[in-house]
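Researcher: We're teaching a course module on how sequence relates to structure. For the next exercise, students receive a sequence and then see the predicted structure as C-alpha cells, so they can try to spot secondary structure elements on their own. Here is the exercise chain.
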Amino acid sequence: MSEVAALLRAASRGSDSWWQAVARRGTPLVGPVQGGRARVTFLWRDPPGRPSHQVYLHINGVTSHHSWPPCALRRLPGSDIWHWGVVLESDWRGSYGFLPVAAEQLAPRPLTAAARRRWWCDQLATSQGDPLNPHRPHRGGWGGLLAGLALPDAPPQPAWQALDAGAARVDPQRLQRLPWVSERLANRRRIWLYTTGPDPQGERPLVLLLDGQLWAEELPIFAALDAATASGQLPPAHWLFIDSLDGTQRGRELADPRPFWEALQGELLPQVAARLPVTSDPRRRVVVGQSLGGLAALYAALHWPRRFGCVVSQSGSLHWPSGAAAEAARELEQQLRGGLGAAAGLRIFQEVGRWEGELVAANGRVRQLLAAAGHQLHYRQFNGGHDRLCWRGGLLDGVAAVLAAPSSQGLPAPATGPPGAASHHPTSNPENHRKERTL
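Model: And here is the predicted structure for the students to work with:
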C-alpha cells in the first residue's frame, strides 16, 4: 500500500490532527518518482459547517473543460476530505485551482460547447488556491486564485524563489511608472520601466514585455530579474512593461498588430528614450510575448527587424479556429513562406507546452519556416500547459539566450535542468493522464 493510500485509510482521517499532519507535509501529495513518473494526489477540505456539493479541479493542460463532465474530486465517505489522483511525468510544472460549488452551482444539462465554456469560465473566475500548498498563490488569467506545483525533475527556476516564498522585494528607485497616451490608438495605458544592474543611467539592452500588467503586478518579475542579473544569467538591462488594458483591447491590438507597433515606435519609444539611454542596436532590443503576445512579438521583429532584432515567443497563438487572431496567424505563416524577414538574421527563442494541443503543431510549422530562413533559433517544448508558471522560467531563459553572443549554429541552449528536463524529454500523450487514477 502506498503512503498516500495509507494516509487516506487511516482511522484518524479528517481529524484536526490528520489535517495538521497533511499541512506539515504540504499539498498536493507527490509520490516517489518511478520510471520518470510520479503520482500526484490533490486534497481539499470543506470549510467547517459549509460542506460542498461538489469540488471541481482545474489543472492547467491536464484536466479539460472540453470533456464533460469536468474533472471533480471525490469525497471520502463520512469525512470533509475530497481527493483526486493523477500520474504525471516527473518534469511537469503547472498551475491548479479548486472550484467548490453548492448544488445550485452545478453545471446544468444539456449544454452546448459554447455554454459549457461560459459556465467553466465563470467558475474559473472564483477559483481558490490550495491553502495547504507552501508556495505563494497567484492570480490566474480568468481572475481566480491558483496554486503552483513543480514535480521533482521540472526545470529549476531559482530566480523566482523569493516570490514563491512571499519575500520578493523591489527597489522603488529603479522602477518608474508613466502613462502612454496614444493619439494613434485613441487610448491611455500604464507603462512600467525597470532597470537592473549597477549604474541605472548607463546604456544597456531594452526588453519590451507585452501584457506588462501580468509581469508588473499579477506575477511581479522584478525580484526575479534582480536575482537572474546578480547570478549572471541576464545582463543588466532596461525592462519596459506595456499594459494590455483589457481582453477586448488586447485581442484587437495584438491580433491586428501593425497599428499597435507603429504607435509604439512613434509615440512610446521616444518617450522612453527621453528618460533613459535606450539602445538603438536591434541586436540588443528584445520583444517578449506569450500566447497572442507571442504572435505579435514575432510580427514586430519580422516586419521591423532594424528596430527589434530579438524575439521571445512563448506559446505563440499561431493557430486559432476562427476570428481575427486566426487570420493574423495564417497571414504571418503565409508571409514567412513568401520570404518575410528572410535576410534579417533575427535571434529567436520559441517555446510551447506539450499539453497545448494544436499550438504544438502550429509552432512546429513556424519553427521550420524560421529555421529555413536562416534565423538564429532556439526552440523547445516544455512539459506544461498554457501556463504563466512555465512562461516565467522560459522568459528569463529566452531573454538570456537571445542576448548571448551570436552563433552560426543558432542560439545557445539555456541551462534549465538535468537531462530529461522539459526541453529534451520525448513528447508524451496528455490524453493518457486525463483519467483519474484511483487510490
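Model: If you want an answer key for the exercise: Residues 158-403 form a domain with the Rossmann fold fold (CATH 3.40.50.1820). The CA atoms of residues 352 and 360 lie 6 Å apart.
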